[in-house]
Specification:
single chain; alpha+beta; 2 domains
Length: 150
């Protein structure tokens, strides 16, 4: 398959089969914008100081965590010097315990209740269309076209 430059990249089955994890990615750099490639090969732009939850491959998580450790490199003069740590920080997503999850599941909002009422009303209208009202009472309007006619 030929892919043009306008077509966004798509993750293949091998990449999706690799182990992944949801993490919080934080850009600690005061000025630089970082683009992090997630599990689905989509670029996630992180502004300075921004943090976002995303799903990354475990090998990418290990790469960023390794670059947060002290590393040595060569400077312009060919001398070894300590390189700065990478500004992208990977944090684990905190797990919500069952007793804590009650705090995060409030009662439905008035908008949600109105939407549920509209869905119930639409369902009732659809059911009325499928029922014939006869003097003997309602009966299903579903008719086997091979054996009967309406």
């Amino acid at each position: 398959m030929v892919r043009s430059f306008m077509t966004p990249p798509m993750a293949d089955a091998a990449r999706l089969a690799e182990s992944s994890q949801r993490v919080i990615v934080r850009n600690t750099h005061p000025e630089q914008v970082h683009v992090i490639i997630d599990r689905h090969l989509q670029g996630q732009r992180l502004e300075p100081g921004e943090a976002r939850e995303m799903e990354l491959l475990v090998r990418d998580i290990e790469f960023y965590r390794h670059n947060r450790t002290q590393r040595w490199g060569l400077n312009d003069k060919g001398l070894r010097e300590l390189k700065p740590v990478h500004p992208v920080v990977i944090e684990d997503v905190p797990m919500i315990l069952p007793e804590e999850s009650k705090r995060y599941s409030p009662e439905p909002t008035p908008q949600a209740q109105a939407a549920q009422a509209r869905q119930a009303q639409a369902k009732a209208v659809l059911q009325d269309e499928l029922v014939e009202i006869t003097p003997q009472g309602p009966k299903p309007a579903m008719v086997d076209q091979a054996t009967q006619r309406r």
